[in-house]
Design goal:
It contains 24 helices and 18 strands. The protein has 690 residues and is of the alpha+beta class. The chain folds into four domains: 200 residues, no CATH class; 120 residues, no CATH class; 200 residues, Orthogonal Bundle (Hypothetical protein af1432); 122 residues, Isoleucyl-tRNA Synthetase, Domain 1 (Orthogonal Bundle), CATH 1.10.730.10. The strands form six sheets. The chain has a five-stranded antiparallel β-sheet with strand order 2-3-1-7-8, covered by helices on one side. Strands 13-15-16-14 form a four-stranded antiparallel β-sheet, with helices on both faces. The chain has a three-stranded antiparallel β-sheet with strand order 4-6-5. Helix 9 crosses helix 14, helix 14 packs antiparallel against helix 15 and helix 16 packs across helix 17. The longest helix is centred in the middle third of the chain and has 25 residues. It is flat. About 1% of the residues have low confidence.
């Protein structure tokens, strides 16, 4: 007898779901339903989820019509005296009711054995209702007397299993087989019997359910319109993802920017169109912004979108009129003239004004410039002007343009182009995918700005905790790491942290040594993430970073790379085993003796050939390693270390450390301690995980 495989279709129809929450919501719905199905042992072939601005849809293929076999298993509650509420919650998780259980008292808790046949539709009803009642929206609301919560008012639930309605209830809504088309183009309701029917009827009702299909349609129409104008579409994946979540029936239209606005910087035009209006700019052959833009409409009109285009052109004209006014008005005042007003801008209550910050970073950037070979005077000038555009009307209206608009104003005033570029670059990189500055001036000012923030906030004990990082210090640290490593800068972090600390005139809570130490540990954690992305294990970074005075990131990377290559060799892996054996013996005996066994080795007490030759080899290798590390020949240092392997193996095979003579025993323990100390001059092998 063949088992019938069935389909379950669920649609949650609501008012507009924020575009940035739709993909995550579809993923959460998939994950939660799948977890519940697995927990009750309900098999299926495939789960798919979809999202539009108004609906979340889930379809499950290959479900059995009936869970045909009796389900029989023993489950245990917390204790005999559990309250009815706790017990019912516990049983709900198992999809059984109290009356369905056979109750038996056992040693601990209540054992319940369930045995019954279940209809799949009944299980699905319970599962979906549980998921809806605890759905993890970042924010939610209630809108009627039922007091259930959803991201926006929920209007309808469609739930069909094997062409029959599953009577799911959520608040005042009970599921049916009805749904609705496009809100404006096809608002009528219609019934469906399965997913194939559902998706066909939606398409006939001006709804494209699949976000990937909406993406394809938008790009296809956009590129066609751009090509007809001999222009190209400016790529903006973030904007595209957002727009996909704003429309159910994408219609791409083309509008025109008044020529009077085309002398405004491209970045202003882009920000006005993309960030504020969700338009797509079009580019000319030279990469500059053309006076044409694309609108992604959610409706199709009989006038080919002419009224929509005119309305959007009118909105953009008003916004660009403001931008043009700011552009002209800001340039009546020099950046230099804005400096005194920075005293009126608070940077942070415990760290002073923005003018205080500028004074600090001017001095710090000069020191960094001298370390990396940048022009000190030009660097200080760039740093001095870097924050002045914060007082401009343009940045007041478009905060995203800070730094960028300062570059334009600096160029208009005749500042050196390297200064102007450094003003634009000093916030960079702002994330792992952001461009990293390469020009020496830009590097110096960017490092100074970020390090000042890191030192200041750590010195007032406002460092990140858990997922909380209100001042974006993790991003700042990653920016410092990228600036140093991607430009091959030989900088000592501790030295720069101390120099930054010295620029503060405010009363700082944490003294400089503790601030520096905490910051270095913080950088260790950030380095682990950075190097993980570059295929270097985090424990190797820790083993190098924990060495005293190792805060040169370029040197640290070279040492970690050499260590990685060393440990994958047979000598390296065996030497690591020997290190652990030696350190474990010493640790155990030190605990027993209540004393350290590091110290002078008495050669007259070395009796066996294997301990004598090991002692000689350790002395030689120690000197060689110091020489090679000083010369930064890290691979050679690892090779020298590898030469110890056979001597250590021979020692363990032939020498008894805990012998009867107490003096010889102590001497041999000191020899083991010397093995550890010699190896730890290269890396802290205790931090290596395998």
């Amino acid at each position: 007898m063949f088992e019938i495989m069935c389909e379950f279709l669920l649609e949650l129809f609501s008012e507009e779901i924020p575009a940035n929450m739709q993909i995550r919501a579809a993923e959460d719905l998939h994950r939660l339903i799948e977890t519940k199905l697995s927990k009750v042992g309900l098999t299926f072939n495939k789960i798919r989820t979809y999202s539009t601005p108004l609906r979340l849809t889930l379809v499950i293929d290959g479900l059995p019509e009936i869970i045909s076999d009796d389900i029989s298993k023993e489950i245990r509650s917390s204790h005999v005296g559990a309250s009815p509420k706790i017990l019912n919650n516990f049983l709900n998780e198992e999809n059984v009711s109290f009356t369905e259980c056979e109750k038996r008292y056992i040693d601990k808790g209540i054992s319940t054995t369930t045995s019954k046949k279940l209809l799949t539709s009944e299980v699905l009803k319970k599962i979906v209702e549980q998921v809806l009642s605890s759905f993890p929206w970042p924010k939610s609301m209630h809108w009627d007397n039922s007091f259930v919560h959803w991201i926006r008012p929920l209007k309808n639930i469609l739930a069909i299993f094997n062409a029959k309605i599953v009577s799911i209830s959520f608040g005042s809504i009970t599921a049916g087989n009805i749904t609705y088309g496009h809100r404006f183009l096809s608002p009528e309701s219609f019934s469906v019997v399965n997913f194939e029917d559902y998706i066909y009827r939606l398409s006939q009702s001006n709804v494209v359910l699949d976000p990937n299909e909406r993406r394809r349609l938008i790009l296809e129409q956009a590129e066609k319109l751009a090509s007809e104008e001999n222009l190209t579409l400016r790529q903006d994946e973030k904007l595209l993802n957002e727009v996909i979540g704003l429309v159910e029936w994408p219609v791409v239209l083309i509008g025109t920017i008044d020529q009077m606005f085309m002398n405004i910087p491209d970045e202003v035009l882009i920000t006005s169109m993309c960030s504020h209006q969700k338009y797509f700019p079009l580019l000319k052959i030279d990469g500059r912004i053309a006076n044409r833009f694309l609108i992604i409409s959610n409706i199709q009109t009989t006038d080919n979108g002419n009224a929509i285009i005119a309305g959007n052109e009118r909105v953009l004209r008003a916004r660009l009129s403001d931008a043009k006014f700011f552009w002209n008005n800001d340039r009546k005042h020099t950046l230099e003239s804005r400096l005194p007003k920075l005293t009126e801008v608070l940077y942070y209550s415990k760290l002073g004004s923005m003018a205080d910050k500028v004074n600090r970073i001017v001095n710090l950037s000069g020191k960094i410039a001298s370390y990396i070979g940048a022009d000190v005077n030009l660097t200080k000038r760039a740093m001095r002007l870097s924050k002045t555009d914060l007082l401009s009307e343009m940045v007041g209206e478009f905060p995203e343009l800070q730094g960028i608009i300062g570059r334009y104003y600096a160029l208009a005033e005749g500042e050196d182009i390297s200064i102007a570029n450094a003003i634009a670059d000093h916030y960079k990189p702002q994330g792992p995918n952001d461009r990293c500055p390469k020009a020496p001036l830009s590097i110096a000012v960017s490092l100074a700005d970020k390090i000042d923030s890191l030192v200041g906030f750590f010195a007032i004990n406002e460092k990140p905790t858990g997922s909380r990082d209100p001042f974006a210090l993790r991003r700042a640290a990653l920016g410092v790491i990228r600036l140093i490593l991607e430009n091959g800068l030989r900088l000592e972090l501790k030295k720069i942290f101390l120099a930054s600390y010295a620029t503060y005139t405010q009363n700082l809570i944490i003294e400089e040594e503790q601030t520096t130490s905490t910051l270095l540990n913080f950088f260790n954690d950030r380095l682990k993430k950075y190097f993980h992305d570059h295929h270097i294990r985090h424990d190797l970074i820790s083993s190098i970073f924990s060495l005293k005075n190792e805060d040169d990131l370029v040197r640290l990377l070279a040492r970690a790379d050499a260590l990685k290559n060393f440990l994958i060799t047979e000598d390296g892996s065996n030497l690591l085993i020997a290190y652990r054996r030696a350190t474990n013996i010493v640790r155990i005996e030190e605990k027993k003796d209540k004393r350290s066994h590091a110290g002078y080795i008495d050669q007259s007490l070395l009796q066996k050939h294997e301990e004598k030759i090991l002692h000689q080899k350790l002395n030689y290798v120690s000197q060689e390693i110091v020489s090679k590390l000083t010369a930064e020949h890290f691979s050679d240092a690892m090779s020298t270390l590898a030469s110890l392997r056979h001597y250590i193996d021979d020692f363990f095979n032939s020498v008894t450390v805990n012998c009867n003579d107490p003096n010889i025993r102590i001497n041999r323990l000191r020899l083991l301690a010397l093995i550890s100390n010699t190896m730890e001059s290269v890396a802290d092998f205790s931090k290596i995980e395998c």
